[in-house]
Amino acid sequence: KAGVTQTPRYLIKTRGQQVTLSCSPISGHRSVSWYQQTPGQGLQFLFEYFSETQRNKGNFPGRFSGRQFSNSRSEMNVSTLELGDSALYLCASSFSSGGAGEQFFGPGTRLTVL
Amino acid sequence: AQKVTQAQTEISVVEKEDVTLDCVYETRDTTYYLFWYKQPPSGELVFLIRRNSFDEQNEISGRYSWNFQKSTSSFNFTITASQVVDSAVYFCALSGVAGSARQLTFGSGTQLTVLP
């Protein structure tokens, strides 16, 4: 069974640009959660999508958004990039919604904002 | 609000030593789940264990064991006879089951280095 895949793996952008990251969950999983990992703030929850609906959202500004498609693939978008958005963005898939189930993580997308 | 504290930022041991990683959590929920994840240098988080708040039985899986004590709000992780391949960052996490608590709240992680 294929694991969670994330594309691209690395990305370099400049301030003010926008970026879209993609996550394909494990087959059969309908929940996708996104996390931001930085040296200063650690791992922080961004949002969770389940069956194309946002179920939960972390404490991030509106520049961070996401969506989920009918095949459970998810994208997250960051608009008007800031230097502080440089981070490893991880997505995780789960069979059920909410954080209580076992979440399988992808390898992450390393975003660098110059 | 949920909070997870991993007070040990870095731990270094010599191969074959036992090592315990501490995790203390805070939550107002009566039902919650606790997790441990391993993050090797490749960056991908690897699930190790999930425990619900009603199950305080200790668990052992090979060289890994977990000690859950609700009285002290702790969920500690012990690696017996450590190996170089155990070197990684280990995260403890907590999730509630209702409302905005239905998300993983991670501790800051403990960098474990096992020296040969």
Annotate the secondary structure layout.
The complex is a heterodimer of chains A (114) and B (116).
Chain A: E1 5-7, E2 10-13, E3 19-24, E4 31-38, E5 42-50, E6 53-57, E7 64-68, E8 74-78, E9 87-94, E10 104-105, E11 109-113
Parallel strand pairs in A: 2-11
Antiparallel strand pairs in A: 1-3, 3-8, 4-5, 4-9, 5-6, 7-8, 9-10, 9-11
Chain B: E1 3-5, E2 10-14, E3 19-21, E4 24-26, E5 32-39, E6 46-52, E7 59-61, E8 64-69, E9 74-79, E10 88-96, E11 105-106, E12 110-115
Parallel strand pairs in B: 2-12
Antiparallel strand pairs in B: 1-4, 3-9, 5-6, 5-10, 7-8, 8-9, 10-11, 10-12
What does this structure look like?
The complex is a heterodimer of chains A (114) and B (116). Chain A has 114 residues and is mostly beta strands. In chain A, β7 and β8 form a beta hairpin. The N and C termini of chain A lie far apart (37 Å). The mean pLDDT of chain A is 94. Chain A contains no helices and eleven strands. Chain B has 116 residues and is mainly beta. Helices cover 0% and strands 53% of the residues of chain B. The model of chain B has no long low-confidence stretch (mean pLDDT 93). Classes of the chains: A mainly beta (114), B mainly beta (116). Chains A and B meet through β5, β9 and β10 of A and β6, β10 and β11 of B.
The gist of it:
Chain A is mostly beta strands. Chain A has strands at 5-7, 10-13, 19-24, 31-38, 42-50, 53-57, 64-68, 74-78, 87-94, 104-105, 109-113. Chain A contains no helices and eleven strands.
Keywords:
heterodimer; A: about 110 residues; mainly beta; seven-stranded mixed β-sheet; four-stranded antiparallel β-sheet; 11 strands; about 0% helix; globular; B: about 120 residues; 12 strands; about 55% strand
Strand content of chain A: over 45%
Rg result of chain A: 13 Å
Poorly predicted parts of chain A: none
Strand content of chain B is: over 45%
Number of helices of chain A: 0
What is the chain-wise order of helices and strands of chain A?
EEEEEEEEEEE
Structural class of chain B: mainly beta
In which range does the helix fraction of chain A lie? under 10%
Residue ranges of chain B: pLDDT <50 for 5 or more in a row?
Answer: none
Q: What separation lies between the terminal Cα atoms of chain B? A: 41 Å
